[in-house]
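Archive transcription. Copying these from loose printouts into the bound notebook so they stop getting lost. Printout 1 of 2:
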Amino acid sequence: MWSAIMSGFNWLIDAGPTVMLPVIITVIGLFFGLKLGKAFKSGLTLGIGFAGIKLLLDYMSSNLGPASRAMVENIGINLDVLDVGWGSIAAITWSSPIIVFIVFSIFAVNIIMLLTKTTSTLDVDIWNYHHMAIVGIMVHYVTKNIWLGIGASVVMAITTFKIADWSQPLIEKFFGIPGVSLPTVSATSTLLLAWPLNWLLDRIPGINKVNITLKDVQKYLGFFGDQMILGLILGSAIGLLGGYNITASLQLGVSMSAVLVIIPKMTSLFVEGLMPISEAAQDWSQRKFKNRKLFIGLDAAVVVGNQDVITTALILIPLTIGLAFILPGNRMLPFADLAIIPFRIAFVVALTRGNFLKNIIIGLATTTAILYAGSITAPILTDLASSIGIEVAVAGGALFISSFSATSLTHSFLIFFAFVGPLFITMPIMIAVIALFWVYFEVIKPKSKKTNEEIELVSEEQSY
């Protein structure tokens, strides 16, 4: 029985997100009371939308990735930690001997939190469990203690589901996708720095008065502000910086224009498939848990196609390479993961409501944190890869591997550090920080929102 369950689970994982998502969504639809035909059609529509998004992201990566790497090589940065990409890190994660224990622990945490009403996120994005799992795997490798490894991934799961809950209004208000949260660590991690930085920027005279959005850019630039033209210009510029000839640079520019135009259409298809599931989930939650909402936890790929996100990411790619060169103490060379910067910036764009100046400032700050964390943990990640028989090819004389994923992410790095440091010091600090965020978002912020609503209501009554 157990063997059959594990075989089915492994088959689902190996099939990848485009197969796994329709299957999981169909099962969830049936659970929430949809008829089989409607649940299956909804799941298939979601799968088609995700496949379309994935094809476009792969297309973007296959075009932008080599151009970004060529730009790095052309500029001549010489660092000893190579960014080998999130795919290599995922392979290391799923090859770990303790991955089964960690995956089921993460799943169990989600169910327990739902039952105890400590989260509203039902995470169906099992593929991206690897972001939470790699932290536990690295902790286990360093400490040789399986319980600390599982514990680290459990803490990652708890905090990820809560961050997904707290950031859900951003998804609904800015991206226009209701009933969905995004428990994808590679996207949500930036919020740990973006939240306080956004608060700070709102209180700096001068900066707090600047609110330039993509629409403003398009308005001021006229013809050159059109999204297609911006994609053409930025894509061509990256090609030229990479040493491409005029023809190849223009081809890259047209490719980026195509991504900017087509990917929002795929996102709308995704939303179309999601709506029946979202509505059924809300009806079910109203029956089972009165006055409670449930959010379907999906891959952040559903929002990275936003035009503000893609445009900001294209601007940040050359700036990220420049940062790697000038930051004192940085050893990490941005390379394979340059093309997935949209994931790292998506929540920043939503948080600032598309404010270009804030996006660049916060984007550079969060990227700086990734470069330093990636530099610090690269030796451990390199040894871990070798220990489980995965040899990741390196180039350009790099001695260590890293990526813009794993423990390079601020969230993952802090949890990892807490579990491998002196526990009697790091554990109380970690618990205190988590408690601080929890109290703010669960107690202080709701009270402040209620007070503001009451003030607005009184003002409206007085105006009459």
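Printout 2 of 2:
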Amino acid sequence: MTDVSRTVEAVWRIESPRLVAGLARTLRDVGLAEEVAQEAFVAALEQWPAQGVPDNPGAWLTTVARRRAVDLVRRERTRDEKYARLAAGLAAPGSGTTPVAHPGDGAAALVGSVPAPDAIVDDPVGDDLLALVLVACHPVLPRESRVALTLRLVGGLTTDEVARAFLVPSATVGQRISRAKRTLAEANVPVEVPHADELAERVPAVLEVVYLVFTEGYAATSGEEWVRRELAEDAMRLGRVLAGLLPGEPEVHGLVALMALQASRFRARTGPDGEAVLLQDQDRSRWDRLLVRHGLAALDRALALGTRTGRALGPYSLQAAIAACHARAASWEDTDWEAIAALYDALATVAPSPVVELNRAVAVGFADGPEAALAVLDGVADDPRLARHHLYGAVRGDLLVRLGRHREAADVLERAAALAPTPRERRLLRERAAAASDPGDDLPGPRPAARR
């Protein structure tokens, strides 16, 4: 892959969500908007190697996409006007002919549904990106399709990356995304932010999507980069917008708190060469204390709203409370693992999943010892959703090292490395496997492998 091709792909990652969102608002068809945006991407791949990368590549893509959208709209309006005139002629008195329905379904209704070219303007009305999230999370779609489509359109993830987030095959995710776009088009779902009462019904799916986008930015599942901050920052911005729209919803504030507290560690999560620095080894003086304060304040709002309304803590507020335990600890040694383990017990009840169990095992390992943590892992060892997940082996391998079962730990860590989605994670796990295979080496300390 050439440097220009890498640049095009990087720009596409950053710009495609906003580009698709703006096009979807004007074209009123999510699938069509993505196609037009991808045409601009192809044009960049064709032109930039010869002409050079423009000074403002995002603006270049936007301009090309809008021109293509204008051309498309003009063609559609011309075609529909012809069908309208034909239908009017067929229905004229004395024609002896009954009007015929056209697949474009004709006539005046279609002309009214297609935006005028002048409607494709530079300054979007409202928050297009939020509107795109809400459309992708529309109730006409199954839950799995909502999340997959939003990660694809808003997160800029490939189908393979979405599949890893779901722990399902890529073909399954591809089918979900295709069906979702067809469903939205057939249902004529508008690309707009709904009223607050309707928005409240869609909050759980939207929060899930926003957090999955943040998670992909916080711990990237592909490429050389350990983090993709632009994705995380988009998710955080969407979270803040949702909090403004639904100020009385505790879980919205819980998610805002969780993302802020986790994002506060960004500067400390990578070393000088871009290598991963796990939580235990992070320089906490590099944590963003402003984000920590914002996160703790949002958590306080979530707790106060929950108390006021008599609602138990939801999954995002519980995870934010766990992150707050880390944020409040002056050092790794000061971490209150008993409190964290108790919070994970509650989270496993509210939102059971194998990944929650992996993280609970880490907490139990530090609170009650590695034997107790292995018992937690044994409870999910046969879960098929973990068959392609490297973190299970990472956690188990670390626990086995702590128990002195070095050869077994090395084998487990090697298998985990083979499943890791990024080169950096593969290298990290193989280094730990090599250290475990030779107990005479300076073995790494216990690692919170499922929390980074």
